[in-house]
Specification:
Elements (H helix, E strand, L loop, with lengths): L1 H20 L2 H17 L11 H7 L2 H19 L2 H8 L4 H6 L1 H30 L5 H45 L4 E4 L2 E4 L2 H33 L2
Antiparallel strand pairs: 1-2
Helix pairs in contact: 2-8, 4-7, 4-8, 5-7, 7-8, 8-9
Length: 231
């Protein structure tokens, strides 16, 4: 009888120790609160780094958060040149456009490279996310945070980059046209003289298309600002 009571006491003690050691529910709750208050509820896209204390409170769920932080860090690095690229593509006169063909082609190549890297980074993040095993309540909150900080920024930049290229393509068409009609087009600084009405009409159409593409690029930039910075 004593042996039975002793065995029961050992089993009970082991059960109590296991219960005391299971911190998953409170770690999950802490992670859900962190995602909601620090990512989802904040304006714009903000992905703060975890402090040592926060890592401790989240336990294994800190690795789930790392999927988001690693993408965010990589994206910030890959899109860093974007601002200067847009400035290089923003030329003020026909003379400037003609004189900067190499710069425009460089911008187009760089924009394509950024798009490729961004696609790779998102694919890697999506794959890592697919490996996560999460309770339903956490998954619901995590999915919202992931969509806001990974999916939405990536898709928004994918809208901007092709638009930059469309603007570049319009500029290059103008350069090609001017080069093909040098006898009819005279450029002196910001002044342009065209001695053929048909050439003038075609050039005006090309310049109008460039203006349209440039406005679309500005609108795409505004969407990025609104999403990334909550402005």
């Amino acid at each position: 009888m004593k042996c039975i009571f002793k065995s029961f006491a050992i089993v009970l003690l082991a059960t109590m120790l296991a219960a005391c050691g299971d911190k998953e529910p409170e770690q999950r709750a802490a992670f859900m609160q962190f995602l909601q208050t620090r990512l989802i509820d904040k304006p714009g896209v903000r992905v703060p780094k975890l402090t040592d204390e926060e890592k401790k409170s989240l336990g294994g769920y800190a690795e789930h958060y790392a999927v988001i932080t690693e993408f965010s860090s990589g994206m910030d690095t890959s899109i860093k040149p974007l601002g200067s690229l847009i400035q290089k593509a923003r030329l003020r006169s026909l003379g400037d456009i003609i004189a900067h063909r190499e710069d425009l082609e460089m911008v187009r190549t760089a924009a394509n490279d950024i798009a490729t890297v961004l696609n790779t980074q998102q694919s890697r993040a999506d794959a890592a996310r697919g490996q996560l095993r999460q309770p339903d309540d956490l998954k619901k909150v995590y999915d919202k945070a992931y969509d806001k900080t990974v999916t939405l920024p990536a898709s928004t930049y994918r809208e901007v980059l092709p638009q930059i290229n469309a603007t570049i393509d319009s500029s290059l068409k103008i350069i090609d046209y001017v080069n093909q009609h040098k006898a009819q087009i005279e450029i002196s600084g910001s002044a342009v003289r065209v001695n053929d009405p048909a050439v003038q009409e075609n050039l005006n159409a090309l310049l109008q298309d460039l203006n349209t593409q440039a406005r679309s690029t500005q609108q795409a930039q505004a969407r990025v600002q609104a999403i990334m910075y909550g402005r």
